Amino acid sequence: MKKAQAAQFNWIFIMVAGAIILTFFIIFSIKFIDLQNKKTEFHIARNFDINIESLKTSTEEMYCDTEISDNCVSLGFQTNVNLECNNNQLNIILNNNIIHGLKDQTLFSPKEFKTKNMNFWIKKLKYPYYITNLIYLQPQNHKIYIKGDDVDIPLIFNVEKLTTINNIEKNSKVSFINIIPTQEEINYLKTNKIPYNIITNNEVQFEDEEIEINEELIMAAIFSDNKEIFKCNLKQIEKQHYKITQLYYNKANILKSEDCNYNIIQNTLTQFTEPKEEIKELLIKQNQELLSQNCPVLF
Amino acid sequence: MKKAQIQMQETILVIFIVTVILIMGLIFFHKFQEKSILNEQNNYKITKLDNQLLTIPTQPELQCSKLSETENCIDITKLEAYKPRDLGKKIIKINIIYPEDTREWIIYNNPIGTNKLIRTSPISLYDPKTNKYFIGKLTVETYSI
User: Fold this and answer.
1) Is B61 in CB contact (< 8 Å) with chain A?
2) DSSP label at A215?
3) Is residue B54 less than 8 Å (CB to CB) from chain A?
4) A255 vs B77: CB contact, 8 Å cut-off?
5) Is the ipTM of this complex over 0.85?
């Protein structure tokens, strides 16, 4: 009896010890998987951050296709990307978890997408001086349909002329350029939740809201599919425009001398609080006049 | 009875030793992971700093331009007019190397922390007042605690 009891206690002891060790290993495995997921997310965020930062170094217009070049924006893993606007700053949310703020940077792209690789295009925005780089981004599984006027977009981007509304693929958006869509087209797009916008030379219409733009931002409207993100980018551009205008005003103070008077152009700069075509043309003219007076140009 | 006790003690001892080995293995693994994460963090900081060295001369706030066409240099008058906001814990300075000139500009000065990473890069500078070009050095020092 005692021998049997001893054997029983032994087994109980073994089972308890075994259960404790097993529990320990299970908890360890769960924590390890969690850590590895966090590391993966960190890698994605790091890749994104470094690649977006690198885009700022572009001195000329450039575009990039990950199929050809390793120097493009590749996240390394299939990632859910969401854009959101917070206090007029654009934030990129990766995998619903990591928030990356785009400080002083614009990004025109779909609001939500899932991808590993992205094609992008950088264009300098000059109005009339260099304000910022406009980054246009298209996920590789995304398509843009265009109806109306032709636009000059590099061939690496997935852009197609819209022929029949019923053949539109998933993960796409439609832009009507200087053309009014038919009611049938609008109904189809709304029913199938396909984002669209209507672009003319001086405004873009997202859903029911019209936003004033100038010619330089037509391409930005083509790559965008959400009015909140588009407006957020515009605010960023306005802020940057104001900052650069202030800088040129201060530069004019430094350049002032007995032979060179910058008061006239400074006065025009103070009126340039909002982007206006007439003031832009006046600034270009006044800047050129400085050259004819043998004075250093302002911009 | 004594035999049973000895057996029990043996089992306990074995489990104890196995546990100690497991704990040692875990500590070693944890240290290894920590070191690996620290290395990644350092590599990221270095890459970010290198990127910054490349982006600073091409910023619209500093880059040279003539009749709206940008050039690959830093405009000295813009440098003097530039007042950056929060750029983190770093010092950014530019000085002229050639031709000899004692001018130096500290664009941003916020050295908070004891650990510092320094990167320098040659740059081209242009003075619109004298219409002269210079070779300069851009230094970025990033601080961390």
Assistant:
1) yes
2) G
3) yes
4) yes
5) no
